Each structure stands twice: as structure tokens, then as C-alpha cells.
């Protein structure tokens, strides 16, 4: 099984709700990854502000930081190799790496249950 | 009317919290209690958690966040938890080990991320929890006395344990939005313990301090209810600064006395349920150990009477001159700043009314979580040129959450939304929401003058600090940044657009606080335009010995403001009635 590691820039929270505005891209990535992790896929995400140790433990990441600086984050590692930088994987890429149906990540809510308030019908 | 306050009441209570709006005498009462208990041979630790603490000024000793003995008082140690400093220590703990291992730019970006308002607030709370649960402290001291922050801030501080615990329990994805305290899971037990201590009446007593004034009593009642709701039920009240006698022929003296008595007639029912004590209005300033000892002996006059000075009273310009200047200079944004309880709301309201009278269109607003603008304008006023609003943190959070979720619902499925919702329940959201609301109010100045009655000092600074931080982050963010946020800081720094008015009383603490505030503002490149000395007894002609004694102590503070601190200074005399409503506020400007 593939192993995905995402090294985020220093940020308050991975959904990005703590900024002056919400970044929809961060929210998409956060929820896609959350959903993949729940299915048991091997995905780790590290934030420079909280887990700097993870950045020094991995030589590829330390070298990347030395060379390009923190502004080039995030950096994405697939099975230990840098596959992307400065951007997050799209849902298509994620579904390819983990061999699942893109639909499962892209899908809009299916189970929007309809509630009928009986009292109103009376 | 009320029994005199006696620290003996707390003989068996280890933790004592003194709380109340800034300027009600919280610090001096906490200090006097600490000294009294220490004098009786109890081991006492006195801690201030106020971001704008003046414990050092009252005790006349330099303090840090490590407890140290107070000179000349046996058995008393004191410390001052400066949240900024606590945050810096926290930051250094996280970042320090990586210096040299990660590039400097990465270190810098970590530091920047860890200097936001959330970190400051959390670091202060963390220190506070550590003290409460530290067995060494519990064993060493008979009493730990907290001189806490102004009401709004304290409430949030005290509410945090509950908020965090609920948040941790409900969080299914490892609490991702707790950046500043990523090791929070480990702290869960500590915070739970803190809540337990706070609501255990055998261990903790909460002493609310109030002034015998309608607005102050109203505020205390609100705090008492909110604290009761979060489980802190062992409360008592001190009515501080009660004038015991008066001169019937002296206009100011009898008005001062009558006004207090009137306020006490409307004593809120909720407060009557608890033990109520009083402390006298005294003619001397409550700084220094000797004076603090007099307080509990109920001395209204100092033991040594100072020689009467023959000098005439100082003369300073009136509030109307300030309004005239704003009217002519076409200032767009006016911020009244200063410690809580100095009358910022009244001054802001008066300036707003004064500018309306000069024909300007004005919007008056407040970011003070403990403000009472509605109360100030409780008469029906009808003026098309004046609009008022207030920034209520709770409402702002709700609105912000709704906005974010509705934006995100287009691109997220149900699970994603649930995930986002969890992050939005983080206590950090409040800072963001309030900050955005503040920015929006300032942006209104495009077509009207905006007068903002800001929150008490510490909170306001955190807000401005966020402004700076967000301003830096804008260049990086890919999300939609509201125009109001983008233009905020440059606007606040432009003296042609923005004027900061510092409001103070002619007393030790408010002036020293205001001086620090001015320094902080100057560092943030904001130069206060003028100082207003509010409610000055010195500017009246009272013959009442206690009030006249106090008027004399004001002199040196008025001189300090006029000669050392202010670009422009104005003075508002103590006025015999509370100015409530448009018509009455207008009198401030005319006189």
C-alpha cells in the first residue's frame, strides 16, 4: 500500500479556519484526507508550527527546506519520495494513489435525508 | 448598611479570586487581603493574570511570572503572569530545540505562527492551570490569591476549561485546530482538575468587586450570573469606595453621596443572595504597603495629614475643544482606549453626540465584551445622523460559523462539513470573528465618522496584534480576504484618518496603565492624538475632606498627563449625575 506524507507550512489548523478567511483548497484537502484516513489508508500530515521534529527527522524534507525555504511548503512525499511541492494533491491524484473511485472523494452529499415535520401537515 | 469586609472570612479557603471590571479596586483589595493574611502569619502567594496588570505599581516591586518574596512583608510571595511573556516562553520551548537544525526562515515562520492571539491566551491559561494544580504550591501556601483580568477576559479564561473539555470529548480527529497547544490531549486532566478546583466551594472563593454605581453593579450582576452558570457558586461581593458621610452644603459631596445611595437602592436582586461587604472611599491613594494596611482598618483619612497646599487648581481644556478639533480635521475613525471603568463608553458616546451636533454623520460602536452602550442610550433617541451598534463576541462567532459553512457547503460533502464544523468549534474562532467584525466597523468610515469604544487595554492590544499578524499573512493566503481587513492596519496608522483618544482617571493605576498603552501603541506605529482625564474631582470645588483629599492626590497625575504624556490633554470634571441618554450626553459637550 502506498504511504503518503504531507509536510504543511506553519499554520494554526489544517482546515485553515483560523485565518482572516477560509481557504477552500485547505478545507478540501483536509476533508479528503480525513476521509481516506478513516478508511485505513496510510497518510500522515505534519505542521511545521507544531511538529518541527518531523521535518528534521526526514532528510529529504530538511534538504528541501534548506534549499527552497518554508514558503515552498507544502511538500508531498509518496513512499518517501518528493512528488509535489507548493501545492496539494487533487482528489484525482489522491484516488489514483490509493486506487479508489474518484467519485468517492468528489461526491456531493448523497445521503441528505429529507425530514418531514408531521406537525406542519396537520 | 453592609458589613465591613474582613479577610478572616477566608481562613479556610485556599484559592481566592478577586475579579471585577478594571478600575473598581480589584488589585488594591487583593493586595490588602494578601498583606492582611500574611500579617496574620499565613503563607500567601499573590498572582496577577491580568494582561494589563498593575500589581507592581500597587506593591511597588518588580515582578515576574516566577513567585518572589515581597520585601518588608513576611510570608508574602507575588508573581505577575504576563501573557505576552508566557507566550514567548511557550514559543521558545517549541522553537528553541530546532534552531540550527532547520533554516532560519523556517524558524521565523514557526515563530510567526506561534505569536497569534490564541497562543497568548492559551499560554496565560496554561500558567494559571499549572499554579492551581501544582502540589508544591498547594502545600507551600495557605492561600493563593489571584488578581484576575477585567471581567470579559476573566470570564473567557474561566470558561475555557469547560470549552476545551467539551471540545476534546467531541473531537474525533485529534483536535486539529488547537495549534498553539498541540500537546493538549496530555493537558486534559490538568484542565479538568482546574475546573474542579474552581467550582469546589471548600477550596475556592470568588470575590467580585464593584463600585457603588449603577453600571458597575449591573456589570457585577451579569458576571455573577455567568460564573454561577459555569459552576462557580462560592461568590461574595465587595462594594468598594463607599462614601460614609457627606457635607450637606457641599454640592459635589452631597451629589457624590446621593448618587451612591441611589445606585444602591437599585441593588440587583441576584447580588443580594450572596454575602455583601463594603470598603470605604478613602482620601489617600491605595498604593504602598502602609496605605493598604489602613484600608481594612476602615480609615478614610491617612494617619499623617499632609500640609495643605495653597496652589490653585490646574486648568485644562474641556471635552468640547477635543470635539471641535475632530470636527475641523475631518477624522474618520476615533478610538477611545484605556482601562475598563475609566468611562470610555461615556467619553466615546459624548464625542459621538458632540460630532452629531456639529452636523456630522456618526456611527458609534463598541468591542468591549462588558460594554453597556444600550444602557447608556437607554432613553429613546431619535437622530438620523447617529447610529449605534455593538460587537458581541457570541453573535460574531455564530455569524462567522454560518458564513464559513455556507461557503464551504458548495464544495464539501457531509463528512467534510462535519469535519470543518469541529474546527470551527475551537475557541480560537472567537478571536477571528471579533477581529473581522472590528475591521468591518472601521471600514464604515468611508461615509461616516466611526467612533469605536474599544475593549479594555489587554484585549484591545491582542486585537491589534492580530491585525498585524493577519496583515502579514494576507500575502500568503489564497482565500478571499475581506477588503475591510486589508485596509485596517494602514488606516489605523494614518493620523489623517484615525485618532486615538486615551481616557484615564487622575489616579495612579489608570494613568500608569494608560502610559503603558500609549507605549504599546507607539510601538505599533499608532500615535495617540489626545488624552482625556475623566471624572476629575480636582476640576470641582468640593470642600468635603475625603473628596478634597482625593482631589489633591489627583494633582500630580494631571500634571504628569499634561506635561509628560499627552500631545493634547482635556479634562472632564466629576459630574453630579450619570449622563444617560442623548440629551444628557449633550450637556457634556456644552459645558
Automatic annotation (TrEMBL), chain A:
InterPro entries: Arsenical-R_ArsD
Gene name of this polypeptide: arsD
Entry protein name: Arsenite efflux transporter metallochaperone ArsD
Top-level taxon of origin: Bacteria
Native species: Halobacillus shinanisalinarum
Pfam family, one: ArsD
Gene3D superfamilies in alphabetical order: Glutaredoxin (3.40.30.10)
UniProtKB/TrEMBL annotation, chain B:
Entry protein name: Arsenical pump-driving ATPase
Family that this chain belongs to: Belongs to the arsA ATPase family.
Record NCBIfam families: arsen_driv_ArsA, GET3_arsA_TRC40
Record-linked InterPro entries: AAA+_ATPase, Ars_ATPase, ArsA/GET3_ATPase-like, ATPase_ArsA/GET3, P-loop_NTPase
Domain of life (superkingdom): Bacteria
AAA+ ATPase domain location: 12-242, 330-527
